Amino acid sequence: MRFKSMLGLLALVPVLSHAQSSVTLYGMLDTGIQYLNHANSAGNSQISMINAGFWPSRFGLRGQEDIGGGTTVLFQLENGFDSTSGALVSSGTLFNRTALVGATNNSLGTLTAGRQYSVQYDKTLNYDPTSLASYSILSIGPIPLTTLRLNNSVKYLSPTYAGLNVEAMYGFGQQLAGNTEAGRYIGASLEYVLGPFATRFVYEESRGTVATGIDQSGLADRRYSLAARWSVPNSYIVSAGVTRVGGDLQLTPRGTVYWATGGVWLSPDINLDLTAGRYDYQGKGQHSQMLTTSGRYFLSKTTYLYANVGYMANQGNADLGIYNYATTQPGANQLGMSVGINKRF
């Protein structure tokens, strides 16, 4: 009888373990066809098949384990790849999008460490109806590519008390002996949410890196950002924001970025959005202005067709492209259009 009881207990072990922890494989495939004018230095137009017509293709693993006392240990590993060729987006880097481990507690908040998104990204994502897609706020430059994600970083997100939450992040940068400032990042936000209304303030400071023969660790890029939104889930969202770019590092030129967005669900299957933005460059007498619109038609909960149209008008030597983090000829205007399919799993 005692032997049978032991067998019974052993049989329960996998069940109990499964109930306390989980690992999920997930991903996204996005492939489209895009037209761009002024696509190269000669001003030629281009029609091409592209990865990430709406959102970047990716696959990843996320997991969590309940260790008791209201605390859950978590991890996430995520890789970006080109759906048109199967190649890694970052050659030689397996988890270029996210590689983090941490813990969360309902009363104490969430602490994570590794390669992860910046505070500015976190606190802009839910203010944009496209969730920062390829034709979006990102195209006008409020979040530099250098600080979209940070290596060697620690991030804390508080629980929400009386509608308020705080997020803070420190990136150790290059971790060079004798130089604690090279590549260092500091970011913090204060957000207030009340029903459909939300507003937040973000401050970020990023130090320069040390490259071969060039030490920019004494230079800093500083950003102050304010945004607000009014949203009703599965109905509509309107939002606006402003980012002041200062300092002497200039990950993007000193100046001020303004943006406004709106999105609406015409039906459970059809979503439309519109985004306008402007980047005024300080002391240069030039600017970039952007207008984009996108539409999505959902074939299912995990699959949709999309169409994007965007126009970027550059004045002076400004060279922002309509596709996020791309450039065009200095002073040239760019029209972009794309159609494609996005599949999540």
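The record above closes out task 2.4. Task 2.5 opens with a second protein, given below.
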Amino acid sequence: MELEQYHLALKTAFASEYAFLIKAQNYHWNVVGRMFAQDHGLFGLIYEEVEGIIDVFAENLRKVGTFAPAGLVQFSTLTVIADAEIEPVPAYAMMETLLDDSEKLVSLFRVLFELAEEHGDHGLSNFLADRQDAHAKHSWMLRSSLKV
């Protein structure tokens, strides 16, 4: 894969991770219902974990010679994560949506890990493996919360 395509794939992952963060934070703010405290806490746990790595992710992009996208237009153009619904939806629908998005990110980070390895960017591939694992954990927590 050419360097330009590789960088675009990394930017797509960064924008997607940021969009996932915003969606999880939105759900944290707007969840309602009988299980409010638990759902609010779960969404908070997820968005805070992702928020904690955004700067590190941007720095990893810079280390491989590309710029981190910044700005809503760039994010919306690059992301594979759709915006949250305009009106709040039931908590279970929020969890289902976030689970689908987290699974997309698990797959995306799996592919990017291989690309980073092909380019010899082993530090970046370690970071990407950690992101894949973090989203696998988010997915597990969401999936478990959806069990009745």
